[in-house]
């Protein structure tokens, strides 16, 4: 029997396929290709398809060398095994998979404790597909709470121009005016004064970021809260804070325990994080918590049957696998507080050491040093004219390193930087190799007559 795949106008005949690999007759195997626009006529052996698709995926970058992403790129084999066992479980079917729902509930409780909820029993929260969905849910709650005040006018949301793009999407989708505080000079994120200056009676909330994706810095949540407290004393306006802790909410509890940014501040109504970033889980899980039920309007919450009772649910998605929630619980159990502290401290140690070594090379100036998020940004010094950050990013890619280069937002579009994210699995040894490669290519870059690419066509950064 001869199996054919990819027939039709999109199936380009090309040689070079291995007849043994293809599992078909040699005459046809030499011309085998994958369908691009429509299904082939017949099935193929599973091992053949596995190898063909795997071959194409070799063209992707190496995830472990991707210093652009915040997303977890390594987990233990035991976590792989657990996720494989849970991938067919649908998280939405809490009555059919009650123990998976129970693991989700435990994770919410653990986060409530980490984030100093005044009454953990009163906290309400849920898992999501990531921090972007979590932000959408938090924004919906803020808007609904504001709408109950009956104020005329268009609702607005105050945030720095450094917010993740999901917040701009939220404002567009839910018809909220985004009040983006622009960067200015060496101020790259939201400050207390700027936050208050942009608030009025139609402000549904202020978004404070614990760990900016642009440079890894924490926004001053406590200062913003104090400024909003003072605003309420003067005007009566009670404006809540949502903390976007996509990365920092899983760093600060372990490395900065005395930093007040969470539910210790009464004005913080909700917090989100990415389980698949510094929560140390593969992509596909985020978390959002509200300090109490008053912070999440009840009409947004639906109830499902759970172990003979009702369980509240609030989400934008419907079906999704339970694997990531199981993996999050595995990670919480596996590491405990001390394990998380050790992992995050190792990431910060690599980041601060690497930042210092890059600064010592000569051509570069640090914007941040990796001492908040284990993330830092740097740019070329003004006197460097032979190359720019985009040249460095392109040349590092030749060795497999994915280091993003990008310009900052409005008011600082003149500033272009490189950013390095240090995650679990990026070791001092790998950092040594990065420094060696960077040191090796600098003499070649310095011999250029000028930058070889335009920033608008060579940027490697997307939120």
UniProtKB/TrEMBL annotation:
<protein>
    <recommendedName>
        <fullName>Glutamate decarboxylase</fullName>
        <ecNumber>4.1.1.15</ecNumber>
    </recommendedName>
</protein>
<dbReference type="GO" id="GO:0005829">
    <property type="term" value="C:cytosol"/>
</dbReference>
<keyword id="KW-0663">Pyridoxal phosphate</keyword>
<feature type="region of interest" description="Disordered">
    <location>
        <begin position="1"/>
        <end position="24"/>
    </location>
</feature>
<comment type="similarity">
    <text>Belongs to the group II decarboxylase family.</text>
</comment>
<dbReference type="InterPro" id="IPR015424">
    <property type="entry name" value="PyrdxlP-dep_Trfase"/>
</dbReference>
<dbReference type="GO" id="GO:0004058">
    <property type="term" value="F:aromatic-L-amino-acid decarboxylase activity"/>
</dbReference>
<feature type="modified residue" description="N6-(pyridoxal phosphate)lysine">
    <location>
        <position position="277"/>
    </location>
</feature>
<keyword id="KW-0456">Lyase</keyword>
<dbReference type="InterPro" id="IPR010107">
    <property type="entry name" value="Glutamate_decarboxylase"/>
</dbReference>
<dbReference type="InterPro" id="IPR002129">
    <property type="entry name" value="PyrdxlP-dep_de-COase"/>
</dbReference>
<dbReference type="Pfam" id="PF00282">
    <property type="entry name" value="Pyridoxal_deC"/>
</dbReference>
<dbReference type="GO" id="GO:0030170">
    <property type="term" value="F:pyridoxal phosphate binding"/>
</dbReference>
<dbReference type="InterPro" id="IPR015421">
    <property type="entry name" value="PyrdxlP-dep_Trfase_major"/>
</dbReference>
<dbReference type="GO" id="GO:0004351">
    <property type="term" value="F:glutamate decarboxylase activity"/>
</dbReference>
<keyword id="KW-0210">Decarboxylase</keyword>
<dbReference type="GO" id="GO:0006538">
    <property type="term" value="P:L-glutamate catabolic process"/>
</dbReference>
């Amino acid at each position: 029997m001869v199996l054919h795949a990819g027939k039709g106008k999109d199936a380009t005949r090309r040689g070079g396929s291995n007849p043994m690999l293809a599992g078909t007759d040699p005459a046809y195997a030499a011309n085998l290709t994958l369908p691009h626009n429509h299904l082939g006529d017949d099935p193929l052996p599973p091992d053949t398809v596995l190898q063909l698709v795997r071959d194409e995926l070799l063209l992707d970058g190496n995830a472990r060398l991707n210093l652009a992403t915040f997303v977890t790129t390594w987990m233990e084999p035991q976590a792989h095994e657990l996720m494989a066992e849970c991938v067919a479980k649908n998280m939405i079917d809490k009555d059919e998979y009650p123990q998976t729902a129970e693991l989700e509930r435990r994770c919410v409780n653990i986060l409530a404790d980490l984030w100093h909820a005044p009454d953990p029993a009163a906290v309400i929260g849920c898992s999501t597909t990531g921090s972007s969905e979590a932000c959408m849910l938090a924004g919906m709650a803020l808007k609904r709470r504001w709408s109950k005040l009956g104020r005329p006018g268009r609702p607005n949301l105050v945030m720095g121009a450094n917010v993740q793009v999901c917040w701009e999407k939220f404002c567009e989708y839910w018809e909220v005016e985004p009040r983006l505080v622009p960067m200015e000079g060496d101020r790259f994120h939201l400050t207390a004064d700027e936050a208050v200056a942009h608030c009025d009676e139609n402000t549904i909330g202020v978004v404070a970021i614990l760990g900016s994706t642009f440079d890894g810095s924490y926004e001053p949540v406590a200062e913003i809260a104090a400024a909003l407290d003072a605003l309420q004393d003067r005007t009566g306006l009670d404006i809540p804070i949502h903390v976007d802790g996509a990365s920092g909410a899983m760093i600060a509890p372990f490395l900065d325990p005395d930093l007040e940014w969470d539910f210790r501040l009464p004005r913080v109504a909700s917090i989100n994080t990415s389980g698949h970033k510094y929560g140390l889980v593969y992509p596909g899980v985020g978390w959002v918590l509200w300090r109490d039920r008053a912070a999440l309007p009840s009409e947004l919450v639906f109830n499902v049957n759970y172990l003979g009772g009702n369980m509240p649910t609030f989400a934008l998605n419907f079906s999704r696998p339970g694997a990531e929630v199981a993996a999050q619980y595995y990670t919480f159990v596996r590491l405990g507080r001390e394990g998380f502290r050790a992992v995050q401290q190792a990431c910060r140690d690599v980041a601060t050491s690497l930042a210092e070594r890059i600064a010592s090379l000569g051509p570069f100036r640090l914007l941040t040093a990796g001492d908040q998020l284990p993330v830092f940004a740097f740019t070329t010094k003004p006197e460097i004219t032979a190359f720019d950050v985009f040249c460095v990013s392109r040349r590092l890619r030749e060795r497999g390193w994915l280091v993003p280069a990008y310009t900052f937002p409005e008011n600082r579009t003149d500033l272009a930087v490189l950013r390095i994210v240090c995650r679990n699995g990026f070791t001092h040894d790998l950092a040594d190799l990065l420094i060696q490669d960077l040191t090796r290519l600098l003499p070649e870059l310095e011999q250029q007559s000028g930058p070889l690419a335009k920033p608008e066509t060579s940027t490697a950064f997307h939120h």
